[in-house]
Specification:
Elements (H helix, E strand, L loop, with lengths): L3 H14 L5 E6 L10 H8 L4 E7 L2 E6 L3 E6 L4 E6 L9 E7 L4 E6 L5 E6 H8 L15 H9 L5 H6 L9 H11 L12 H20 L40 E5 L2 E5 L11
Antiparallel strand pairs: 1-6, 2-3, 3-4, 4-8, 5-7, 6-7, 9-10
Helix pairs in contact: 1-7, 4-7, 6-7
The chain binds a DNA duplex (16 and 16 nucleotides) through helix 6.
DNA sequence: AATTGTACCTGTCAGC
DNA sequence: TGCTGACAGGTACAAT
């Protein structure tokens, strides 16, 4: 579910409502969520701590708790964080609850239970969660055109596979990759190294534009995604190819097709998207 | 090194 | 209506 625009939107809602709050008590209903510490640690580590900051790195959410404690959360496919009043009914699949000092609750809901949590010192938790291996933030200056050119030219993979690789650039998932490649006019099966320079330049700019548009629309609510206050995003109404199999391309009216590329369901307008290089 | 398959889970939807 | 199988936005790991 959540890719960069969704996680960014969740983070922004949480910054507004939980930063500065103290965690009074904690309930953990699904201990397997916790990847690097026993249940007791989760409770003992969090209780009494102030939420100093909530930030995002790639698709991860980072909570700084107290002076030096960190909690790193990845929502994977169906994770949701919800800021609730205590009297609001509990959704099925609620796996943890933080009781905050303003009598509100932060609840984690995850139907498929793929979400992961790491806790420890702020620095150590980031290492354990694997954040060191992540590539640059696509909306930061680190994601420069020269960097992107180099990342593509040194790869034998398809462009779709490369864009999904979080060590090359973070934050893109299936939806935003398909949308970016459509808008850049590139067939997802094109070998990354064989894209013409001009196409690489266009794709680089397009990735930023699509992600920024996703953030501006507060994310894509195709299925489960809602922000920290339970609100849907609206980018699903602006999708060109993702989820539009058998519908007409908005530009040329060609029927959008879906095929498996890089092991993922991939949506393509074969008229608007050129296949560069390779077979 | 890169790709493919598998695993982690539950819900939904298409097809029979 | 009910059953079954395919499939779902992510990532890690093993095998090839």
């Amino acid at each position: 579910m959540p890719e960069l625009p969704e996680v960014e939107t969740i983070k922004n809602t949480l910054v507004d409502c939980v930063v500065g709050r103290v965690i009074i008590s904690v309930e953990l209903n699904y201990p397997a969520l916790l990847k690097n510490a026993p249940v007791d640690d989760f409770t003992k580590t969090l209780e009494g701590k102030r939420i100093v900051s909530v930030t995002r790195r790639g698709k991860y959410l980072l909570f700084q708790l107290g002076e030096k404690t960190g909690l790193i959360l990845h929502l994977r496919m169906t994770g949701q964080l919800r800021y609730n009043r205590p009297q609001e009914p509990f959704l099925k699949h609620t796996h943890f609850v933080w009781h905050l000092d303003n009598h509100m609750q932060l609840r984690y809901v995850d139907v498929r239970k793929f979400g992961t949590i790491f806790i420890g010192s702020f620095i150590e938790a980031q290492k354990t969660a694997g954040l060191e291996r992540l590539g640059p933030e696509p909306l930061s200056p680190c994601f420069s055109l020269p960097y992107f050119v180099k990342a593509l030219s040194s790869s034998k993979r398809t462009i779709k596979s490369l864009l999904l690789d979080q060590t090359k650039v973070v934050g893109l998932g299936n939806i935003y990759v398909d949308e970016s490649l459509f808008r850049a006019g590139i067939h997802p099966q094109s070998p990354a190294a064989e894209l013409p320079d001009e196409q690489v330049r266009i794709l680089h700019a397009t990735i930023r534009q699509v992600l920024q548009a996703g953030i501006d629309r507060r994310g894509t609510s195709m299925n489960d995604y809602v922000d920290g206050l339970g609100r849907q995003g609206t980018f699903q109404f602006e999708l060109s190819v993702y989820g539009r199999e058998k519908e007409q391309c908005r530009l040329c009216h060609t029927i959008i097709v879906r095929e498996v590329i890089a092991g993922r369901s991939t949506h393509i307008c074969t008229h608007c998207q050129n296949r560069y290089g390779g077979s």
